[in-house]
Structures are given as C-alpha cells and as structure tokens.
Write a structure and sequence with these properties.
heterodimer; A: about 120 residues; mainly beta; seven-stranded mixed beta sheet; about 0% helix; B: about 110 residues; six-stranded mixed beta sheet; five-stranded antiparallel beta sheet; globular
C-alpha cells in the first residue's frame, strides 16, 4: 500500500512569489491535514480537508489556502511568499474513525526555502 | 501556558536505559497521539490513545484522563530510537484539529 506522497520535496522561491504543494493520501483515506514546521514554532496546524470540504483552519493568514480534489489529493498554496514562510510543510492522511481524527500517516514533507 | 506540555525537552541516555517522556495537557480531548520524527523530517504515528495503555514492541504509552497526563516509555533503548517524540491531542470540541507539544529530542548513545 503506497504511503502519503508529497511533492515537491524541496523548493526554493523568492519573496513575493507563490507556491503550490501537493499531497496524495493513502488510498481510501479521505482526510488530509496540513502542518507547518519551523524550528522556532514547532508543528502548527494549517487546515484539514475531508471529502473536498475544509473542516477546520488554523491561525494562518489568508495567504495560505488549500483545496482537496474528488480523488482526495490535496494542494496547498501560499501566495506573496515571505521569508518567514520558510519551513517544512507536512501533510497527513487518515481515515475518519469514531474519534474524528484517526491515526495519522505523514508524508516526508516539502521543504520550502524563501530567499 | 501551552495547552500541551512535554517534558523533558531534551534527553540523552545510554543504550539499554529505560526512557520516559511525559505529556500534560490542559484541554478536553478525545484522543492523544504519540509520534516520532527522525532527522530529515519524516513523522511516524506511534500510538493513538483515548484511555488506558498500549504496547507495541519496546514502546509503551499510557494515559490518565483524570490527571490529563500521558507517558511514553521505551524499554531497552537503542541508538536507532534517537528521534524527536511529539505528543499531540485531538480537541474534544474539534476532532479535526490537533494541538501539538513542542517535542522531546531523545539521543541514545551506544
């Protein structure tokens, strides 16, 4: 069974540009969540999608957006990049169990550097 | 005060030692997760708990809902256990969002 796939793994952008990251969940998983990890802030929740609907959103500016397609693949977009957006962006997929968020399966992450 | 607190922040031990990492939380939760992150970024889910105790190999996780506390134990620690261990909780009123602890960096020396 293939794991969670994130692309690209590494990318370098300059301030003001925009970036799109992709996440393909484990087959059958309908929940995809996104996280930003920086050395200073640790892991922070960005948003979570289930069946193409955003169910929850963390405390990030509107420059951060996402979407989910009918095949459960998800993309996140960051517009007007700032230096502080340099981070590891992780996505995780899960089945929706009794408790809502089931066991999480993470991708390897996309490491974004903004120059 | 953070809603999820982990201790210690850093832990260095010798191979073979028994390791305990603690997680305390201040919010109502529906579940607690323990995850492991190796250098390079990959995160692996170790346990998801809502009560009691779970064991997988040399790893044991316990949770006390009344005390709002969980522990992760590693028996017979090995250098390959060196990683960052992260505790995260699913909020009771928002099952779709996780609140993360800052992580515990564990180094096991041979």
């Amino acid at each position: 069974k293939a794991g969670v796939t994130q692309t690209p793994r590494y990318l370098i952008k300059t301030r003001g540009q925009q970036v799109t990251l992709s996440c393909s969940p484990i087959s059958g998983h309908r929940s995809v969540s996104w996280y930003q990890q920086t050395p200073g802030q640790g892991l922070q929740f960005l948003f979570e999608y289930f069946s193409e609907t955003q169910r929850n959103k963390g405390n990030f500016p509107g420059r951060f957006s996402g979407r989910q397609f009918s095949n459960s693949r998800s993309e996140m977009n960051v517009s007007t990049l700032e230096l502080g957006d340099s981070a590891l962006y992780l996505c995780a997929s899960s089945l929706e169990g009794v408790w809502g968020v089931g066991e999480l399966f993470f991708g390897e992450g996309s490491r974004l550097t903004v120059l | 005060k953070n809603e999820v607190e982990q201790s210690p922040q850093n832990l260095t031990a010798q191979e073979g030692e028994f390791i305990t990492i603690n997680c305390s939380y201040s919010v109502g939760i529906s579940a607690l997760h323990w995850l492991q992150q190796h250098p390079g970024g990959g995160i692996v889910s170790l346990f998801m708990l809502s009560s009691g105790k779970k064991k997988h190999g040399r790893l044991i996780a316990t949770i006390n809902i009344q005390e709002k506390h969980s522990s992760l134990h590693i028996t017979a620690s090995h250098p390959r256990d060196s990683a960052v261990y992260i505790c995260a909780v699913s909020l009771m009123d928002s099952n779709y969002q996780l609140i993360w602890g800052a992580g515990t960096k564990l180094i096991i020396k041979p």
